[in-house]
Write a structure and sequence with these properties.
The chain is of the alpha+beta class. The chain has 13 helices and 15 strands. It has two domains: about 50 residues, no CATH class; about 325 residues, no CATH class. It is globular and about 65 Å long.
Length: about 475
């Protein structure tokens, strides 16, 4: 690490110790936000740090602007929110790249925004399948009276912890910080047997940055800014919440679960605790490396707790691939199946989300071996009899990330940094809320939309007089 990086990170530690935390970055006035952004630019040497994130749409930026844009969208915040809630049926892949007319260009821009919403909704802050507490010790390695699949999994996890720095060192860490870059893109869309590929995926990839703070036990906070949209999510140990421009601040259904992004080589102890109840189901070569495969399935009680109304989580399975040679986690796959029943008693629509992540570039940081790069491919597949009229659809998305800074036991970080926003409503939102609204069955779409219709109607009335964002999109759905 060069002198510039060392100076930047030392200054960052001092700022955290003086109280500049994720919790204080919320709900700032425009003047305070500008001052903090300037301070971060000075610390980062040219603006490498993320600007403070607001609890809603940036009043200075339109949907097509970058995070630091200065063009204000005409028509007020109410019209901005209404535009975010309206999705076209097909992603931007179907919009012609060389469209010259104004209408075609506007359609392409709208499709691009829809793509970005889908990317952030599915890939921004996904959670692990089950609750886990890294403070609890792993099961003692035992062969007697233990199925071979279970004892093999315990042995593989012991080797993984040893390769990652050792359980004693990992258990002594009080908190951690990571900062990195991401690039997201929708690469392929299939409907009715017709496949549309994004032939300019590299040029159309949305760049972004993220920061992740974690604190034992079970507290975490993440900010992600991509393509002019900002998503932040967190957990105070009792409640998992997320804020997106289109849903506002809301809590997640079901038990407290870790952030999947942390399992991708950033938090070895939580990853090992996650797979403590897994089974070894065999071996496979991944990216030229021989790996053991551990399988973990969410139990029926957890699935019921995560379900809501007409949306039922049928299964969530996680596979971890651990290298024979290094013992490290080199690949993650999880499959998540949701059924949305028609409110009129018709056939259901099924959504299957599959995320496959390669974890790479492991390096030691203060004795802990951390992955510094990786790639994910996401497939979102809709099927079922009720979907025949709309056509079965499959959308493929990709993400690449790199880690720039990692630190452990940052001074000044406390539980106050993980307090949820004040506008998190009493209700909670199921994962089905992030599915493409324009591609649901008409009957099933009523599952979530009525709650938004009331909010949008209120925004329309208050559009001319200004909108107080803090209460504009609180979800009170039961």
């Amino acid at each position: 690490m060069d002198a510039k990086r060392q100076g930047f990170f030392s200054a960052l530690r001092e700022e955290v110790a003086r109280g500049l935390s994720p919790g204080r970055a919320r709900r700032r006035s425009a003047s305070n936000a500008a001052e903090v952004a300037a301070a971060l630019r000075r610390l980062g040497g040219g603006g490498e740090a993320l600007a403070p994130l607001m609890e809603g749409p940036d009043p200075e930026a339109g949907p097509g602007a970058t995070c630091g844009g200065s063009a204000r969208k005409e028509g007020g915040w109410g019209r901005w929110v209404r535009g975010q809630l309206q999705l076209t049926r097909a992603p931007a892949l179907e919009a012609g790249a060389g469209a010259g007319s104004g209408a075609a260009a506007a359609a392409a821009a709208a499709g691009r925004r829809n793509d970005l919403r889908l990317l952030l909704g599915v890939m921004g802050a996904p959670l692990a399948p089950v609750h886990v507490c890294a403070a609890e010790p792993l099961p003692h390695l035992s062969i007697k009276d233990t199925p071979i699949e279970t004892s093999s999994a315990q042995y593989i996890l012991q080797q993984y912890l040893a390769a990652s720095g050792g359980q004693r060192l990992l258990s002594s860490i009080r908190n951690s910080y990571a900062m990195g870059k991401v690039r997201m893109v929708a690469t392929e869309f299939e409907a009715g047997g017709r496949v549309v590929r994004n032939r300019m995926a590299a040029q159309r990839a949305e760049p972004g940055r993220f920061v992740l703070w974690q604190m034992a036990p079970e507290m975490w906070y993440m900010e992600l800014a991509v393509g002019g949209s900002k998503v932040h999510a967190g957990c105070n140990g009792k409640l998992v919440w997320r804020h997106t421009p289109w849903l506002g601040a809301h809590s997640a259904k079901g038990p407290v679960r870790p952030l999947r992004r942390a399992l991708q080589g950033l938090d070895p102890l939580t990853a090992a605790s996650m797979f403590a109840g897994a089974r070894c189901i065999g071996e496979r070569k991944v990216n030229g490396e021989d790996c053991f495969i551990l399988k973990l399935s969410a139990d029926p009680e957890t699935l019921r707790a995560r379900s809501e109304g007409l949306a039922e989580i049928i299964r969530h399975v996680l596979f971890g691939y651990f290298s024979h040679k290094s013992g490290l986690l080199v690949h993650l796959e999880d499959s998540h199946l949701t059924r949305i029943q028609s409110a009129t008693g018709g056939d259901a629509v099924y959504w299957e989300t599959t995320i496959s992540s390669s974890v790479e570039d492991y390096r030691a940081v203060d004795g802990v071996v951390v992955a510094h790069a990786g790639r994910s491919a996401v497939t979102l597949f809709r099927f079922g009899e009720a979907a025949v009229g709309l056509g079965h659809t499959k959308t493929r998305m990709e993400e690449a990330w790199t880690i720039e800074e990692v630190a452990f036991d940052v001074p000044g970080l406390s539980a106050d940094c993980f307090i949820p926003p004040t506008d998190v409503g009493p209700g909670s939102v199921s994962e089905a809320a992030e599915l493409p609204r324009g591609e649901r069955s008409k009957a099933a779409a009523g599952l979530v939309l009525p709650c938004h219709r009331a909010r949008v109607a209120a925004l329309e009335k208050a559009d001319d007089g200004g909108v107080a964002w803090s209460g504009a999109l609180q979800l009170g759905c039961k």
